[in-house]
Amino acid sequence: MAYIRVKTLRKIKEKRAKTFKLKANKSASKRYSITGSGIVMSTQSGKRHNMSQKSKRQLLSQTGKTHVISKGLAKRIKKRYNIF
Description:
This protein is mostly helical. It has a single domain (23-84), classed as Factor Xa Inhibitor, CATH 4.10.410. It has helices at 2-19, 26-31, 56-60, 71-80, and strands at 32-34, 40-42, 67-68. Strands 1-2-3 form a 3-stranded antiparallel β-sheet. The chain is elongated and about 75 Å long. The protein starts with a helix and ends with a helix. The model has no long low-confidence stretch (mean pLDDT 81).
């Protein structure tokens, strides 16, 4: 009787373990975005402060998520997003 009870408890634990979902890392999701084809994009640096000293052309070229990340770093970022 005890053997059956332990066996059913193991099955219940296995079912519970399968139901948990992995959460994506919030800091990574705020810094990077992944395109439909899987390319990792990030914003260009240099637009947080001292913008009055920079030229208009320099500021306009840094808008949007334009910077493509290298393959090695992109692999680590995708792990943070839980995309394997």
